Amino acid sequence: MMREMGWHGALKKKSPRTTCADPGHDRAKDLVDRQFWAAEPNRLWVADFTYCRTRSGWAYTAFVIDVFARKIVGWKVSTQMTVSLVTAAIDNAIAARMRSGVTDLAGLIHHNDAGSQYTALAFTQQLIGAGIAASVGSVGDSYDNALAESVNSDYKNELVDNQPLFPGAAELSLATAEWVTFYNQERPHSYCDDMTPDQAEQFHYDHKRALIPEAALTN
């Protein structure tokens, strides 16, 4: 019937495979078990990266998300899906938190999939150096990293797939910076009772300060 009508089935475009486990890498245990909830910021971060087609070829964008308010705390765009891509994203996240006054990340869990970039020794050492505990989901199960996958989907739907191809990674990176600002500062999130991630974090800290006795603040 389709042939008679001149119809053709939609073909799925070939895309890079981003989660490729390396059996030679030691993997951390799954400390999250799909419980994407945190009582306050800097208790659980999730990370992943996704592919983006540009006129110059494939580019890859890595994100680090703080689970408490779904805030993107680190990101990086690159033309290669290497260890340096995910290391740069976590460096960006740590630096952003340090600029906001966070001096100790002890007790923070960083969760990601079992891709070889995240299980590489260089990335693991980066987490250890910052006092961050590593957590890795199982191979080939997107539900083990569902929150990060959801942010990737928002990014692709709201920025990448809704306009002509970007010329290259540099242009994609500039647009990503603007989108991350929009996502954190302007875009209401239902998980945050329709506050933005920035507003939700600020509300948390304001509420926390209000619970501290005045005498303790003056000492």
Automatic annotation (TrEMBL):
Region listing for Disordered, in residue ranges: 1-24
Coiled coil (residue ranges): none
SUPFAM superfamilies: Ribonuclease H-like
One Gene Ontology term of the molecular function aspect: nucleic acid binding
Record-level GO BP terms: DNA integration
PROSITE patterns in the record: INTEGRASE (PS50994)
Database matches in InterPro entries: Integrase_cat-core, RNaseH-like_sf, RNaseH_sf, Transpos_IS3, Transposase_IS3/IS150/IS904
Integrase catalytic domain boundaries: 37-205
Any matching Pfam family: rve
Signal peptide: none
Protein name: Transposase InsO family protein
Organism: Flexivirga oryzae
Organism phylogeny: Bacteria, Bacillati, Actinomycetota, Actinomycetes, Micrococcales
